[in-house]
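ok trying this again, last paste got cut off
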Amino acid sequence: MEYTENDVAEWMVNEIKFKGILSQSDAIAYVKSHFGDEFVFVNEQGNSSLSKEVKKAFRKLHAGKIAWDRDGFFWAWT
């Protein structure tokens, strides 16, 4: 099956709605294993990150209802 950025973003929003929180490390591991490596890249600091396209689709879907916790490296329902 061919996945899109929207598929990944929808999974993320649903995870956060259900669990209340989603850590970046859990998201990256799940996305890599279930959606594919094309949605993850290694940033300038050498850390794995979700692609800009996924983040853009994610922000559009949650429309401000989910916040990023910079210190804890997780997203949470607001």
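PB: full thing came through this time. The helical segments are 5-19, 24-34, 52-62.
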